[in-house]
Amino acid sequence: MHTDRNALFEKLWQDYRNVTPSAAQIHRILGAEEGQVIINDHIALRTFNLPPVGLDALAEHFLALGYREGGEYHFKGKKLYARHYEHPDPEAPRVFISELLTEQCSPELQAAVKTLVAGMTQEQVAADDFLYSGRHWDLDYDTYRKLLEESEYAGWLAAWGYRANHFTVSVNHLQHFETVADINQLLKDNSFTVNASGGEVKGSPEDLLEQSSTMADRVPVKFRDRETTIPSCFYEFALRYKKPDGQLYNGFVAASADKIFESTNASM
Ligand code: NI
User: How far is the CA of 56 from the centre of ligand 1 (A)?
Assistant: First the structure.
């Protein structure tokens, strides 16, 4: 496991940027080259709830860096469970980790996913580079399509493996933009597609969190039997409000996150 938080997030960012060309472009549009420091509100990771790759195994990497457990979230329709982790350092990105509750899925999906993770070891999952190590299994296109038909989440995870599913810009820290709607307008003016599921701005000041995201980039992926273009990762934007005690809200809003998951949907 990494002992340097910045080193871990830099590696995660490099890997994410390699498969998400729009992230670097948006970074530039937000003023990264004119000295605007882009602070990450959070990153998100996905996994299956099977040993040795369950949510807790991924979380170990962050607990080792001084993170502590935050809220938990249930996504019944998508058969997902998630937890967030936060760090005492307010500049440290929050971490949102979800897992697919495979036992609620069809026997076919369960069998396919068990085959994918069957060769994985605890040592691999604990390795420094695990969180940005990508796919650990061989995958044919037909299996990908079948997983995707039942669960967009399962299809994405089977194809992409372990890496940041998205990075999220903290709008609170941007000097030239104040609202999520401003960001959405900037994205559209620059020909990016904003995820409109549940509305372009998800959440409200009453929820203490407003979010939006691009739709995932589409990039070529090698399957065992072909190479084809599928959704990779997306970029998210979050604006947090203060709780009555004056502290910024640190949690997530399940109803909003539910729609954000759809940013990687293959069928648009
Ligand atoms: Ni997110």
Answer: 18
Q: Distance, CA 158 to ligand 1 centroid (Å)?
A: 20
Phi/psi at 53 (5° precision): -110, 15
Q: How far is CA 169 from CA 142, 190, 211, 217, in A?
A: 35, 17, 10, 17
Q: Is 159 exposed, middle or buried (0-12, 13-18, 19+ CB in 10 A)?
A: buried
Q: Is 180 exposed, middle or buried (0-12, 13-18, 19+ CB in 10 A)?
A: buried
Distances (CA, A) of 158 to 70, 96, 117: 27, 19, 10
Could you read off the pLDDT of 62-92 as tens digits, one per residue? 999 999 999 999 999 999 999 999 999 989 9
Q: Are strands 40-48 and 234-240 parallel, antiparallel or unpaired?
A: unpaired
Pairwise CA distance, residues 171 & 29, whole Å: 14
Cβ distance 183 to 171 under 8 Å?
yes
C-alpha of residue 76 to centroid of ligand 1, in Å: 18
- The position carrying tokens 């979230």 is 73
pLDDT per residue as tens digits for the range 103-158 = 999 999 999 999 999 999 999 999 999 999 999 999 999 999 999 999 999 999 99
The answer to whether the CB of 252 falls within 8 A of the CB of 209 is: yes
Q: How many angstroms does the Cα of residue 237 sit away from the middle of ligand 1?
A: 8
